[in-house]
Write a structure and sequence with these properties.
heterodimer; A: alpha/beta; Aspartate Aminotransferase, domain 1; Aspartate Aminotransferase, domain 2; 12 helices; B: Aspartate Aminotransferase, domain 2; seven-stranded mixed β-sheet; three-stranded antiparallel β-sheet; 13 helices
């Protein structure tokens, strides 16, 4: 199955009218050219080990701290509270295991609360925590896709240590009321973590206002390089490291720093800060019109999964009754249009999306859904073309289903 | 890496063509890294670096058997990633045995034979030491581990790209490498995992890397590691030249400072590493002084820089704290030239000259 590298065409759908159109920005984003240049430059010129004492090492140290400041600024956090990791998944694991294990060591509790629509980086820790003897409560969500603060309040007991609810869901884009949830947690002295991988740089999140204690973010979702993320840890939160070694990142996350990646992450974060309002305005308006075009092309029956209120501006999770989402995805791929049927991490599996099931959809309904997530590279021409292709395939697949 | 930063931006787990191209990039890199280690591509697990791979090896083996018996045997001169992971296991109740080394930094196989017990889950001993370059008799050590029914892990971070690596010939079950130690990018490493070795993952989440390491693949970094592995394999031939340069540097230092003492094994040593104890000069002062003249070297491993403690490696080899403080490490590469070596020696001359005219003997504490 693997194709030889040389054979890879630069853009294989380039010859087609309208394509390629990338509509999977929640899976990953293209690296901003400015950021890619910086990554490349740091790789070639600033390759020192920041722990070394000579000049290349010192330069690396400066880049490291500057990037930390840039990421911290976007969170409204002091830079000392931001720790670089290898990505969002590692940040989530570090936050949850780190806090739970530290609390157990100190005899402070053993109970963790999360919800049913979290990313697998959080949900899969649940099994591991239970195996380790921790207690875990998984909260349900409303049909719109929201965790209710009252449900959290009821779930908290005297031994609850940490609650983790994502800021924006990766499949349906709903924005969770993390400010209220964090307040509920704090009423009872419970720490609050949020996986902000999908919202970071797109929806405002200020740790001073929202009062969350831990925040996971990732670079490759904000037009930065893959393989780098960060965890914000409020000063004073006790956390046990998951990895041991040279003591980098003040012992919280050891290992030689990924300098080009960290530099790129910092630059991407700064760009996101500058462009946040403009991106929201332009991409949000495009997204609304895109849905209209799709409905026109498909002739009605197109349903939106999850609430349309309190939803990130770039996400459409659509259900086409009588159409198999995976068939639609593959047909669109041939037209040069990239969409997904759920999160990339569970692609290739035949399981229906756990998020859509948690909203109360049937397996069949979940299987007839696709996720379209827009980004900076999308424009009206591309989206009109995509809507046209979606309409064509949906009509065709429906005819086949009827037959 | 460039194409994977700028053009191929898919998530390697996505099934559309952008994702598949990223996936192909990852798999091409996997084949290249596998070739460097002489194993099948599916035995390679990409990680966020050497430290993570070491942690995965140690904790992964122990936790996969948890709460079964799981003694770990490791060495005193391991890299902090192994040392600290072992200390962590010790703290949570896992029995750990620490093996010492001789004056050359060599682990004696007979010591492992004596230390190993029936309940040993894992023996982790590095292939080549990062500070003095001594190459351990890993093949023999692995054989002893296997005879006792234990798995064998080796941290080959310093060895990769400098000496040929063959996991079959070495007979190891787990082997760690890191891209940035063989001219690849930082932030990416790999763990070789022999078939049927059971490991508990450290990072839970998506099913990337066959469930052993969740998280969106660092496609560009991995592609860079693959390209670096390919070059490293080709570059092994030039390592004899690097050893020649290293010897030239060593001779030059001895000419200037006859009492300089080389640390590490005289023969079983990485071709690029030179660790010397200099008479009457504090290593750290020399690092700073040479840096001002454009020569980068270190006084110990980078991970411990900034720490005032003498290096644990030299102490384990029987050196005093004072001797350890007077040691410096030069590590060369295929990019180093005779001119670089001569420039370093000239800079050393200048430093010595300056010191002779100011304070010759910097106090060591």
């Amino acid at each position: 199955m693997p194709v030889k590298e040389k054979k890879r065409p630069a853009v294989d759908a380039g010859a087609r009218v309208g394509g390629p159109v990338y509509l999977d920005h929640s899976a990953t984003t293209p690296v901003d050219p400015e950021v890619a240049d910086l990554v490349h430059r740091v790789m070639l010129e600033g390759w020192g080990n920041p722990s070394s004492k000579y000049k290349p090492g010192n330069a690396a140290k400066i880049v490291l701290e500057r990037s930390r400041e840039r990421v911290a600024n976007l969170l409204g956090a002091p830079k000392e509270d931001v720790f670089f990791t290898s990505g969002g998944t590692e940040s989530d694991n570090l936050a949850i295991f780190g806090v739970m294990e530290a609390a157990r060591d100190a005899g402070r509790g053993d109970h963790f609360i999360t919800d049913a629509i979290e990313h697998s980086a959080v949900l899969h820790t649940v099994d591991a925590l239970r195996e380790d003897g921790f207690r875990v409560t998984v909260l349900p969500v409303t049909a719109g896709g929201f965790v209710e603060p009252d449900a959290l309040r009821d779930a908290i007991d005297d031994r609850t240590v940490l609650a983790s609810v994502m800021h924006v869901n990766n499949e349906i884009g709903t924005i969770e009321p993390i400010r209220e949830l964090a307040a509920v947690a704090h009423e009872r002295g419970v720490l609050f973590h949020t996986d902000a991988v999908q919202s970071f740089g797109k929806e405002a999140l200020d740790v001073r206002e929202s009062e969350v204690d831990l925040v996971s973010v990732s670079s490759h979702k904000i037009y930065g390089p893959k393989g780098v993320g960060a965890l914000y840890i409020r000063h004073g939160v006790e956390i046990r490291p998951r990895q041991f070694g040279g003591g980098q990142e003040r012992g919280i996350r050891t290992g030689t720093e990924n300098m080009p990646g960290i530099a790129g992450f910092g630059a991407a974060a700064e760009l996101c800060g500058e462009r946040m309002d403009a991106d929201r305005e332009r991409i949000g308006a495009l997204c609304d019109r895109f849905l209209g075009w799709i409905r026109d092309e498909c002739g009605g029956d197109v349903l939106v999964n999850g609430s349309r209120e309190n939803r990130i501006y770039l996400n459409l999770n659509l259900r086409f009754p009588d159409v198999e989402g995976e068939s639609l995805l593959l047909a669109l791929d041939l037209d040069g249009i990239a969409v997904s049927t759920g999160s990339a991490c569970s692609s290739g599996s035949t399981e229906p999306s756990h998020v859509l099931l948690a909203l109360g959809l049937s397996e069949q309904e979940a299987h007839s859904s696709i996720r379209l997530t827009l980004g900076r590279g999308n424009d009206e021409v591309g989206l009109r073309y995509a809507a046209e292709c979606i309409g064509r395939h949906v009509r065709r697949l429906r005819e086949m289903a009827a037959w | 890496m460039r194409p994977f930063l700028a053009e191929v931006h898919g998530n390697a787990s996505s099934i559309h063509s952008a994702g598949r191209r990223a996936h192909e990039g990852v798999e091409t890199a996997r084949r290249r890294v596998a070739r460097l280690l002489h194993c099948r591509p599916r035995r390679i697990v990409f990680t966020g670096g050497g430290s993570e791979a070491d942690n995965l090896a140690l904790k992964g083996v122990v936790f996969a058997r948890w709460p079964g018996p799981g003694r770990v045997i490791t060495g005193e001169i391991e890299h902090p990633a192994v040392l600290q992971a072992a200390r962590f296991l010790e703290r949570i109740g896992v029995p750990v045995t620490w093996l010492g080394v001789d004056e050359h930094g060599l682990i004696q196989p007979s010591e492992l034979e004596e230390a190993i017990t029936g309940d040993t889950a894992l023996v982790s001993l590095m292939l080549a030491n990062n500070e003095v370059g001594t190459i351990q008799p890993v093949k023999e050590l692995a054989r002893i581990a296997h005879e006792a029914g234990a798995l064998f892990h080796t941290d080959a971070v310093q060895a990769a790209g400098k000496i040929p690596l063959d996991v079959e010939a070495l007979g190891v079950d787990l082997l760690t490498i890191s891209a940035h130690k063989f001219h690849g990018p930082q932030g990416v490493g790999a763990l070789y995992v022999r078939e049927r070795v059971e490991l508990a993952p450290l990072v839970h989440g998506g099913k990337q890397e066959r469930g052993l390491r969740a998280g969106t693949e660092n496609v560009a970094g991995i592609a860079g590691m693959g390209a670096a592995a390919q070059r490293a394999l080709r570059g092994l031939d030039s390592m004899a030249e690097v050893a020649g340069l290293r010897d030239r540097l060593e001779r030059g230092i001895r000419d200037r400072l006859p009492d300089a003492r080389t640390n590490g094994h005289p023969d079983r040593r990485l071709p690029n590493t030179l660790n010397v104890t200099l008479p009457g000069i504090r290593g750290e002062s020399l690092v700073v002084a040479l840096d001002q003249r454009g020569v980068a070297l270190s006084s110990g491993s980078a991970c411990k820089s900034g720490s005032p403690d003498p290096t644990h490696v030299l102490l384990a080899m029987g050196r005093s704290a004072e001797e350890a403080h007077r040691a410096v490490r030069f590590s060369l590469s295929a990019d180093s030239s005779e001119r670089d070596v001569d420039a370093a020696l000239a800079a050393l001359d200048a430093v010595l000259d300056e010191m002779a005219n100011t304070v010759r003997f910097l106090p060591c504490k």
